[in-house]
Amino acid sequence: MNFMAQTSSPFKRTSRLRQRIHSLALLFSQLLTSPLVHHELNFMAQTPSPFKRTSHPPAPCSLLPSPLSPLPAPFSPKSMTLFARIQPSKKFHITVKAVAQMLGIPPKVIIRIERWGYVLFVHRSDIGGQFVSYRKLRNWQNAVACKIQNCVKKEQLLMLWLTIKNDGKKYAKQYKEAYYVFVERVCTQQWQKIGLGQVMGKAVGTRQ
Asked: Are residues 36 and 206 in contact, defined by beta-carbon separation less than 8 angstroms?
């Protein structure tokens, strides 16, 4: 009887959880109707995405750094290349099936795969051997997307975008157009996500 008296009822915990969820839903609905949130969201919708591979500079925006101002040292594209950030030779999980699919050959043609510092060396039974760039693997695209989604500030995202652009210019032959389209979309989505988080944070701060 003492154990039963000391044990809290699971139904009480469930009701408390429901109350918290209801409170959060109510707060979120109130924030969405806030004039401040509406103003910021309209501003975000009207602001063009800075993640375009064009020669034209982005439209003036208070959220973007001035193109004349120097880049912060910790985020300078020259301080760390995209390859050094991703470290494919150490972190990629590479399979024979994936490499064969990328090369358009049957997996049985590949004898073995060697990881070198900057490329893969694929031993093949038909042509002897072949060098393959890490950038051509699906793993590379997924790793770049992961780096983008880990950015929590717009400054970080912009500096990473500059690093991606520099890498794309230097190794243009190793990329396809679909890669750039994918990266631009992920960058734009993360930019909007960070902006929405900042808007909601401002709205919560004004209500407290």
From this structure: yes
